[in-house]
Amino acid sequence: MLGKIERLLENKLISVGVIAVLTLTVYSNSFTAPFTLDDYGSIVNNYAIRNPLDLSAIWHFYSNRFILYFTLSVNYFIHGTNVIGYHITNVVIHIFNGALFFLILHRLLGLEYFSKRLCGRYRSLISLLCALVFISHPVQVNAVTYLVQRTAALAASFYLLSILFFIQYRIQNKARYFIATMLFTLLAMFTKENTITIPFMLTVLEIIFFMKDPKTSWVKRGVMLFLLFLTIPVIPGTNLVLHGYSQSDPGVNFKASTSMDRFHYFYTELNVLMVYIKLLLLPDRLNFDYSNDFPMSYTLWDHYSYISLMILGILFIIGLYNIKRNKLAALGILWFFITISVESSFISIKDVYFEHRLYLPLAGFILCIAGFLLGERKQKGKKYLFQKPILFFLSVSLVMILQNSIITLQRNFIFSDGIRLWSDVVSKAPNSDRAHSILGGNYLDSYENNPSANKGHLALAEAELKKAIQLNGSNDTALCNLAKVYLLKNEYAQCIDEAKKANRIQPSIYAYNNMGMAYRKMGRTDDAIQAFLSGLNIDKKSTFLLENLGDVYFDIKDFENARYYYNEYLKNTRYPSENVKEKLSKIESQVSKTQ
Question: Is residue 115 included in any domain, yes or no?
Answer without folding.
Answer: yes
